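Support request, priority: normal
Reporter: lab tech (M.K.)
Component: structure prediction queue

Hi team, I submitted a job for MutS protein msh4 from Lunasporangiospora selenospora yesterday, and the status page still shows it as pending. I've pasted the exact input below so you can check whether something in the sequence is tripping the parser. The sequence length should be 669 residues. Please let me know if I need to resubmit or if it's stuck on your end.
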Amino acid sequence: MQQYIIKEGSPSLLLGIPTKYYCLSATAALMRYIEESHNAVFLSHSIQFKYQICQGSMVIDCATARNLELTTNILRDNDRETLFGILNETSTSMGARLLRSNILQPLTDEKTIATRLDCVQELCGTEEVFMNIKRTLKTFTDIDRLITSFVQVPSKPTIKHSEQNINHIINLKHTLRAIGNLTLPVRGLTNRLLCTIHRLLTDARLEKFADLIDGVVEQSVVLEKTAVGLRNQRCFAVKAGCNGLLDVARQTYKETINDIFGDVNRYVDEYGIHLKVEFNLTMGYYLSTSVDNLEGRGLPPIFINVIRKGRILTFTTLELVKRNAKVNDSLTEVYLMSDKIIAELSSGIRDDIGALYKVSEAVAMLDMLMAFTHLCTIGDYVRPEFSSDMLVVKQGRHPIIEKLYSTPFVANDTFAGPHNTFHIITGPNMSGKSTYLKQIALLTIMAQIGCYVPAEYASFRIMDQLFSRICNDDSIELNSSTFMIEMKETTYILQNVTEKSLVVIDELGRGKYTVIKCAPILLKVRDNPVEPKVVHETGTSIYDGLGIAFAVCEELIHTRAFIFFTTHFQELTYGLSVYHNVVNLHLDTEAVCDSGDTGRSRMVYKYRVTGGVAQKEHYGVLLAQSLGLPQEITLRAEAIAQRLSDLQENARQRSESDKVVSRRRSLAR
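Reply from support: The job had stalled in the queue. We restarted it manually and it finished. Here are the results:
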């Protein structure tokens, strides 16, 4: 690290990290991997290192990031239908990377968050400045990639490397021009963070870079996008007069190109065929024409390597092949001689490469704040507030679903405080329980990265950690059952949760083993309508799942963390109500009978979070009926479900009676 770190700020960093053995070892391994896999070495004092600790950022584990689809959609394996996807209105690669890292590591420092929110508020109020900044940001190339090109050199230089060096200097020239354009609209902003960004954009070292480049590179050189444009740009990038041999080689290149076009004009006059000169990096210059231009004739034999694509013919001539070879020879000489001049220029830039690191960070931060501002201008978002012990969201909405789907989203309130930290949420499948859990977590993340949130009002407690246990699918790759995954993730939560954490758990203890337990019972009820005496269990029983869920809930209740827990176990809603900080909520639904003789009912989902416990029984059967399951099956299913409920209630009453008898017997003794 002493060899590679830039001189700016190195003493303070090197003083504090000698005891960070694991961090240093990982860094050294990464550097060695990059050098060996990319066949490149880093130049001395060319890399900016930063030592960051977990303090100041919320901890989000990999499972939670996946469950909440922060950066990757589980079903489609892309970032469009994710939190990153809907927030990513950035214009630069640096801004997108910063946004991604912030989503995965939200801030926990309230002052820093407030500063970002102030920036967004100021940018929202200056439409003209906002549009000018947005327009200028779109002209930036990837500064981080540009920095890498200056600090990495190949172990074996090639002509390709010489071409790239010229490209990088031209890219830097373009970037410096874009930085200058960006300073103008940022200059009048008053927020402290925005003023810091302006100061970094006007660093005197950037002007030094511009002077060095202007002394070597032609003033008229701009970024080109076409292949032939890029080649000509590299060829004539260095000013005339810097090297006499370079000027001769470029003149040869220019004359050869003129000869190529002269030959083509001669072919047109001689053969009476309309010819078009094409170019690509593989073939160089070649010819093309339409089949219609031949008017039924064949191509003259002088044209070789004929390829037909639809009605277009491409071909070349021996003379054109020779001229392409001469062009390439001239270009090789030009690149090698230009590279020697560019190398001296690059050396002067590397001495102050730290200025580019700072600019990259400044542009990335500004770009991310602009993305947050853009969201405020197109959606009904509100600035979040923060308190020490309360989570209050009025009419909050799921940010991803609201943006991606045209149907109106049903907003819901959320409230948590010192006296109601644990929330049990019940309701039928598809009623919106999981969506509500994810909404709470996503809004918290948005608030803690300094973004406005979709709600009428929002106040958050700063969370130090975010945990989730949401069942998506079994992990086939790891050959793990639902139960095993649940227990691993739950154990991690219990070991790491603190009073300042946010935990969302979706139906703990509901795994596949529940069905295994019920199946033998259903068969016995069908065969014999009496209470079964023995039930064969082939997996973890439903009562094991209930017991584990109950015990986990009790442990989490004592942590005082803010916890939102969905379940189908009605026993939890009653058993845990003895704790004063437990609140019961449910997603409201309504059973509506269809008109006609069928007598079928359908489930109407209101997606509204309401206080209390869901009261409807057998809503699974009702859901199956509304989805078209034959009526005779749903009627039979309802009868079985009612019978099982009666058996369970009778068993409970007998158990209570047995306890009373046992107590009386003990008293009689």
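Confidence is low (pLDDT under 50) at residues 474-479, 512-540. Residues 244-337 form a domain with the MutS, DNA mismatch repair protein; Chain A, domain 3 fold (CATH 1.10.1420.10). Let us know if anything else looks off. Ticket resolved.
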